[in-house]
Amino acid sequence: xxxxxxxxxxxxxxxxxxxxxxxxxxxxxxxxxxxxxxxxxxxxxxxxxxxxxxxxxxxxxxxxxxxxxxxxxxxxxxxxxxxxxxxxxxxxxxxxxxxxxxxxxxxxxxxxxxxxxxxxxxxxxxxxxxxxxxxxxxxxxxxxxxxxxxxxxxxxxxxxxxxxxxxxxxxxxxxxxxxxxxxxxxxxxxxxxxxxxxxxxxxxxxxxxxxxxxxxxxxxxxxxxxxxxxxxxxxxxxxxxxxxxxxxxxxxxxxxxxxxxxxxxxxxxxxxxxxxxxxxxxxxxxxxxxx
Length: 291
Hints:
Shape: globular
Radius of gyration: 19 Å
Number of helices: 13
Low-confidence stretches: 275-291
Largest sheet: none
Distance between the termini: 56 Å
């Protein structure tokens, strides 16, 4: 299992890289204003962990459950959503720009937020930024680069290989999720029903925080909202075991892994992506600028 899951993620990220254009991703970055990026920063790294801590306090969750939900809250940018965005009408390059930005911010924001949260519980916790940088480089940047280089160097091969990698990676990932669910089923039955409720609040707050941001383009708002709910549960699991020593945080993290897809599917159903022609009359990204 320690090798199969990373292999599935690697295949999916290579598949994503084969369909990305770096110029399009960088264009998305440049078109967003500094004000827009500040709102994205708050919605991505501040709101979800804050809701996690508030929910844990109100629901009187255990320290391990609190740790699990908090780590989910501080870990954005799960590397498995980007390719499927285009099929739902979202902008895949915009989703990729958000994912890459979040990955670059992780080594800065996670150590800072975890250290500050630790102080609230009279604990000194420090996660080395280099560890996080190596993690995202191995799991995200490297396979993306492999996919993009392959598409550039041998486009016909990439065109044939891309759907195969995507299907194979998704099948392996689904099997792994089912196995994890079976393995943790007894533990999940024993947890308080307030833990799934707290996980639901994190997912909803992640979407709402983006929805209330003042983006002039509705497609930006909808794309970033669904991306923000897609928290990086794999990274949360890694950090909970290695640095917080909270082995009992697993059920809380698994709860979010099960609840978040339901919330994202419901969001797509409730807020379908409208015609890009009508939504982009001014062909502009970013926040509303005062006249």
